[in-house]
Amino acid sequence: MYFVAESELLVTFMLSLSLLLVIISAVRRYTRNFIIPGVTILMFLGAILAGTPIIGFEVDEFYNFIEGLPEIILLIIIPILIFESGRKLKIGQIKKEAIPIGFFAIIGVVLTIIIIGIVVNGVFQIPFIDALLLGAILAATDPVAVGVIFKKFPIPHKLNIIIEGESLFNDATGVISFNVIRGIIFSGVAFSLLDTSISFIWSMVGAIALGTAIGEVGGKVLDKWKADEYVDFTFSLGLAISGYIVADHFLHVSGVVTTLFIALLLITKHKEISTGVRKLFHKYWDYLGFVTNSILFFLIGIPLLAVGTAESIGYPLILILVAPFAIMMLSRTVVVYGGSTFLRIFRVKIPLKWQNVLTIGGMRGGMTVALVLSLSAEYEFKDLFISLIIPLIAINLLVNPILLNQYLKKSKIT
């Protein structure tokens, strides 16, 4: 009986996956010229289709599935998508924009946590430390969401480097802040600026060192093998996922930054690859990135089923829908415009039109969902946080691309 039940579950899963691939294909075919990105449509389809009989699961079963989403997102999807984005960047480009990237990825994230914490504490009347935890979950722009949205828009290369660099490097600051604040709430650990600073330095420097080492060795191995595109692609996929897991789970350094540097160094050091093989290698990664992105945003939509009603968490529906988005945009506005003014001290000038794009382009996505769902089920504000964050991401990924599209058309920034 147990074997039969497992077999039926596998059949249902494979049928659901097949249906999802058909849906992804249809969305890609008919939304290429839409203002709203196809992944945003997939997110809403995830919410709509998750509980329907055609998928084969009951809504209650999806609540159990949602509990496993953080591991699926963090251990499988994120490393694939970080490598897919990182292979297109160059170390020299990141060095040239190190000051603005560093500011927005470190100081900007800390300021965002504080601003969101203060406003959420006042609006929702929850303890300040818990409001800061929500701020930490929302503070970092998501590299996957940012990458997939900005692929649709032609923007200056330098601005694109700042946007992608910030979203890739601010993961370390956001996750460390999240872990520190969570430790204070659940374990009663006293905050220590020294310990936090050491943890951040280790997370960032250790990740860069690990990613560089894996990328360099991997590139030399592929050079020695003189392999074809199948070997190159398969080998790089293995390094992307294993490097992320070793960094995040065993060495406790930033998995995102580790995977980014694996991608940067692997592409740089693998010099013996022929032009034809290199072209196919990137084609395979383009396709894997497309499919994985689509699946991720479909999964992000599923927790919308788990969002409690306004009455069950004690707040008006309009407050739940509007306030988080307004607070997030307020914090982003302060950080971008205030930070751009501050950066003039270092002779870094970010044009006003670029500042507008940076503000509108502060996307949240899979990383934010994974963090909020990873909170303990016993945490008293978990339901509230889910009810605030999931609709926020849906609005963010619906409204901001439309605003960005209209602004880029009118400003002629390109």
Taking all Cα atoms into account, the compactness measure Rg is: 21 Å
Q: Give me the secondary-structure category.
A: mainly alpha
Main sheet record: none
- The total strand number stands at 0
What do you see in this structure?
This protein has 18 helices and no strands. The chain has 414 residues and is mainly α.
Helices and strands, with pairings:
Layout: H1 2-30, H2 38-49, H3 59-67, H4 69-86, H5 91-96, H6 98-124, H7 128-139, H8 143-150, H9 157-187, H10 193-225, H11 229-251, H12 255-269, H13 275-301, H14 310-313, H15 317-343, H16 352-360, H17 366-373, H18 382-411
Descriptive key words:
single chain, 414 residues, mainly alpha, 79% helix
Précis, in short:
With 414 residues, the chain is mostly helical. It has 18 helices and no strands.
